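Give me C-alpha cells for this 402-residue protein.
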Amino acid sequence: MARTTKILAVASAVDLDFRYGCTPAWWQLWKGMYEAGVDLLVTPYRGRPVESPWWRVAPNPTYREGESYQAVRDALARVKGDRFLRRDESHPDESGLDRVARETIRRWVTPRWKRHLERLVENEKPDAIVVFTVPMAHLRGIPDVLRARFGIPIVFYDGDVPMSLPEFGGMDTGFNPYHGADPWEYDLVLSNSEGGIPRLLELGARRADALYWGADPEFFSPQPVDKDVDVFFYGYGDKFRRDWMKAMVGEPSRLAPELDFALGGLDFQGDTGAARTLGDVPFNVFARAISAARVNLNITRRPHATVAGSSTARPFELASSGAAIISNPHEGIERWFEPGRELVVVESAEDAVSAYRELVADPAQAEEMGRRARERVLDEHTYAHRARRLLELVGLEAGVGV
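Here you go.
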C-alpha cells in the first residue's frame, strides 16, 4: 500500500507574531497540503516552532542567534530614530552590516542548519524538501549535500518576487535575499510571479515556475458584522506604494470628506490624508475587519504591480471575504479576477473617489461584486488548488509517496 507523501518544510517563520507578510499565507498553504494528504514537518528559520492541527514541527537550531541578530538590528534602527534599517527602493547596495552578517552566518549558522537538516531527513525520510522564503544565501551548499546523500528533490519557494530580487532588495524587516545566493542548487525555484521567472533563470535557477497566492475560504469568508467603515486598507507599511497610497487614500480622503477612511497596519510613511489609523489588525480578526468595510482597497507595491503576473495575497483574501475591491493598476490582475465585474481598477485619485462614492451609495452593487469575487476564488484560487499545484510541480501526487 502506498504511503503518505511526506514533505519537510524549512520556513522563514511559523510564529505569526513576527508579522512577516508571507507567514499567514504559509499557514493557509500548509493547511491545504494537509487536506491534500501530505504529512508536513515544519522547521522555522526565525522564531520558535508552532504546532497546529495540520503540521508537525521540528526545532529552530539557531533560535538564539536569530533573535540576537534581530536585537542588534532593532537597536541600530532606534539609534537612527526609526523602527527599521531602511534600504533604497531601487538597486540597494549591500551594507557593511549585511556583509558581516552574511559572512558570520556562513561560518556559524549554515553549518548548524546543515547538520540539523541532515538529521531530520535521515530520521523522517521525506519525499521532498521545500524551503519557504528563507534567505537563500544562508543555506548555501546545503541543497547539494542533501541531494547527493539522500536523492530527494530540494525546492525553493520565494513568495515575494519581484520585490525580493536584488534590484529591489526586499522589505526593510529582513535581508536582501539573493546577495551571495546560488539558485542553481535547487531542483526547482517557485515564485509567486510569472513575470519574475526570466529573472530567476538569469540569476541561475535551473528550473523556475509560478505558484500564485490564494486564500483559505473557510478563514476568509464574509462575516456577519455591521459595516462601520466606508473605505478600508490594510497592509504591512507603504514602502513601494506611497504614490498609490496618496492617490487612493490621501487625496480621496480630502476630496470626499463625507467618507470614512481607515488604515490597518503599521509603518505608513507617506500621505494618508484624513484616514484614521487603527494600528495592527490581528490575523484572527482580519476577515471581520474586511467585512466591516463597505469598500476594501488593494494597493499593490510597485514591483509587483509592474512585473506581469506577480501575485500578492491581498486580492485573494479580500475576494474570498466577499469584499467590494478597488485596486490600483496591477499588470496581469485579469489572470485572477475580471476588472469591472469582480473588482474595480482605478487610474487616478478622481477615479478612486468616483468608485468609492458609487459603491458606498449602492450596497447591493458592492455586495454583488463581492459575491462574484468570492465565487472566482472558490472556483480557482483556494489554497487547496495551490497545494495540488505545488505537489504537481514537485512531481508528487496528493497523498501518495513516490
